[in-house]
Amino acid sequence: MPSTPERLSPILEGMDTGATILLVSRLTTVAVAAFLAILLWSRTRDLAWMLIVIGTIASYADIVFDLLSRIGLVDESRYALFSLPLGRIVLSNLPYLFLCAALLVMIKRKRIH
Prior knowledge:
The protein is mainly α.
């Protein structure tokens, strides 16, 4: 059985080298961040931190979805909104929505009455 790089080479053949390096580096970096976020998740029950953790995991899901789309395992055009792929729209913005919610929770706590 061929090793992993040999099996992936035909899949990644359509992507240029720069795009492949960028995607792999993003995937690696966010995988570490998601792992650390899951560790934090088990140690805190604070709503703001939980929203940040969920946003980090959503960011990882966005990158995995991008990878699956690029190698052809996910058909983005199946679900579209105004001819834009709905999965891409949702997953690209979801991490920032959770981050906004976390920041709003923190701002509300610090409000002077």
